[in-house]
Amino acid sequence: MFIYSLPGKLPGEKIIKIIRRDIFILIKKVILTLILIVLPALAFGMMLALYPNLLNGEISYPLIVLAVSAYGLFVWLFSFFSFIDYYLDLWIITNLRIIDVRQEGFFSRTVAEVKLFQIQDVTSELEGFFQFIFRFGNVYVQTAAEVGRFAFGQIPHPEKVRDIIIRLAAQDKEKHHHDVHHA
Amino acid sequence: MTIPLIVFFYLYLLFIVVWLIFSIIALYHIIRYGQINYISIMAVIIYLAGVAVIFSLSFVFLSQIDWTASLAILQGKVGVFGPDY
C-alpha cells in the first residue's frame, strides 16, 4: 500500500523515485536514543549502590517513580520526533521536476522544486569513512532556476541518483526543445 | 519547611500536558505530511503502543504511593534517600 500526493502535481507527471537519507542516519538516531536510556540507568544503578534504601524511602520512591515516568515519556517522544525528522525529509524525482521536502523543527516545513530542463550540471560526492563503507553521500544539482544549486544530502548510492537525474534531464530538455520549436 | 508530595505529582501532570501537546504535533505531522504506507502506519502504532505501556506502568506504580506525605527541606535528610536504619 503506497499513497503519496505530489505537491502541486503537473499534468502527466509521474513519480520516478522517492529518496530519503541513508538508513545509517536513522541508525545513528537509534543509537542516540539507546544512549539516552542506558546512561541514566547506569547512573541510577550507581546511586542505588551508594544509597541502598533509595527505593524504600517514603519520599524518594515517589520522586523516583515520577522522574522515571517523565523521562521515559520524554525519551520516547524524542525518538519519535527523530524518526519523523528522518522520515519527512525526502526528495522526489518525477519525470518533470525534482522536489525537495524538508521538515525543520516542529513548526517549519520547506518545499522547493526545480524543473528538469533547467538542470545544467549534476555532481555526486562520497566523502568520509562511513560514507565510503555504507555508500551514501551527496548529490549537487546546478540549475538555471532561481534556486541555483539543489542538494541531496546523505542519500544512498549518490552516483546512481546522479545518473537518473542526468538521464531524465536530457529527456526533458529534448521534449522541452521539441515543444518550443513545434508550438 | 515542608512541601506536600502531591505538589510533585501536579508538576508531573503539567509535564504530561506539555508532552501531550508535542505528541499530538508529532502525530499530526506524520499523518498529514507522511506517505500512507506500512512504515508510517507501523511507526504510529509502535509509538502509541509504547505510550500505552509507559502510562500503564506509571499508573501501576503511582497508584501505590501515599501522596499525603511531605518532603521536609532544610531539616535534615530524613526520608529523602531512604530510611536511616
UniProtKB/TrEMBL annotation, chain A:
The keyword Transcription is assigned to this record: no
Is Membrane given among the entry's keywords? yes
Annotated TM spans: 30-51, 63-88
The organism's superkingdom is given as Bacteria
The residue ranges of the YdbS-like PH domain are: 93-165
Keywords on record: Membrane, Transmembrane, Transmembrane helix
Any Pfam family hit: bPH_2
State the protein's name: YdbS-like PH domain-containing protein
Automatic annotation (TrEMBL), chain B:
Classify the source by domain of life. Bacteria
- Give TM segment ranges: 6-31, 38-62
The protein's UniProt keywords, in alphabetical order, are: Membrane, Transmembrane, Transmembrane helix
- Protein's recorded name: Uncharacterized protein
Q: What species is given as this protein's source? A: Candidatus Falkowbacteria bacterium RIFCSPLOWO2_02_FULL_45_21
